[in-house]
Design goal:
With 321 residues, this protein is of the alpha/beta class. The protein is 42% helix and 16% strand. The chain has a domain at 4-171 and 202-233 and 285-301: 3-Layer(aba) Sandwich (Rossmann fold), CATH 3.40.50.
């Protein structure tokens, strides 16, 4: 990989990927809507001359193509809020595909597990597991995958990497655990989306970034779906306890179920949309990493104790800055 473009670089996943690329000495173009945020990110990543900032609109193929000049790999980590997904996800994908095609770059699309639908097994599933989405978001995400692999884009090397829920120093409030951990770090009462008792997967973002960049560096990985699994399942209660230990405070944490989220949705549309996806917090889907291990090797597996500690410490440092 000679040079990479990260779309959605200031988001949690995009920032982790940009950090991993920088750690490897790969020149990176940071792309997003806010130049100020991109400049701050550049400084966070060390401010090296190999880091470039490019402000633009991911819905505009011209902007993507211009940012990708001289780039051989594009990481598409830009996301859409839940309540806008059905309307905006596919137009964004078309712009990215067109821009990448003009630049002659490979495309690594970061996505989630919604297309699988309800779990058919309690065992970890492989990439060949049937996709039978039963939600609007799941069907939209499946349409996204189908668009990427349409025959008209066959000349472009591309892959999809699928993450479960995640956490890590770079995550923001848009993630399931983002607000929870930020409040715990500050010693504030907070909420937890879903059931605190049910163990489910949370991948540590720096680990995920290592796996994503490793796959992106292998020609044979393109044209496929890849799972980015966690170290294993953990309950929300366990993660909260670990976060509180690092924060040195134990403020109340209130779980949010369907009724509470529906009521909050009257004022915040994105909260209402989360209700549709709560099944994943009740019947978690676990991802197998066997395919990754067969091609790359051992999966990075930061223990939750260490990952949560690093995350809370990073949030406390940001709050003081």
């Amino acid at each position: 990989m000679r040079k990479a473009l990260v779309l959605g670089a200031t988001g949690g996943t995009g920032k982790a990927i940009a950090q991993e690329l920088t750690n490897r000495g790969i020149p990176v173009v940071l792309f997003g809507r806010s130049k100020n945020k991109l400049e701050r990110l550049k400084q966070e990543l060390g401010g090296a001359a190999s880091l470039q900032v490019r402000e633009g609109d991911v819905f505009e193929a011209d902007d993507v193509a211009a940012a990708a000049e001289g780039v051989d790999t594009i990481f598409h980590a830009a996301s859409i809020p839940y309540h806008e997904m059905e309307e905006k996800l596919l137009p964004m994908a078309r712009a990215v595909l067109e821009g990448a095609g003009r630049a002659g770059a490979r495309l690594v699309a970061v996505d989630g597990i919604y297309p699988y639908g309800r779990r058919a097994s309690v065992e970890p599933i492989g990439e060949d597991h049937p996709k039978q989405p039963h939600t609007r978001k799941g069907r939209t995400k499946l349409a996204f995958e189908q668009l990427l692999f349409e025959p008209r884009y066959d000349g472009m090397p591309k892959m999809i990497v699928r993450l479960p829920d995640y956490y890590g120093p770079s995550m923001n409030k848009a993630s399931y655990l983002g607000q929870t951990f930020e409040d715990i770090a500050a010693g504030r009462p907070t909420v937890f989306i879903g059931n605190l008792s049910v163990p489910r997967e949370f991948v540590y973002l720096p680990d995920a970034a290592v796996m994503i960049v490793e796959l992106a560096s292998r020609e044979e990985a393109y044209g496929q779906n890849w799972h980015i699994p966690s170290v294993g399942p953990a309950s929300g209660r366990r993660l909260v306890e670990l976060a509180q230990q690092t924060a040195g405070r134990k403020s109340p944490v209130f779980p949010l179920g369907r009724k509470a989220l529906s009521l909050m949705g009257v004022f915040a549309p994105v909260m209402k949309e989360i209700v549709e996806m709560l099944y994943l917090t009740e019947e978690p889907l676990l991802l197998s990493g066997a395919k990754y291990e067969a091609l790359i090797g051992p999966i990075p597996a930061t223990p939750y104790e260490e990952g949560v500690r690093r995350t809370i410490e990073a949030m406390k440092r940001r709050a003081k800055a």
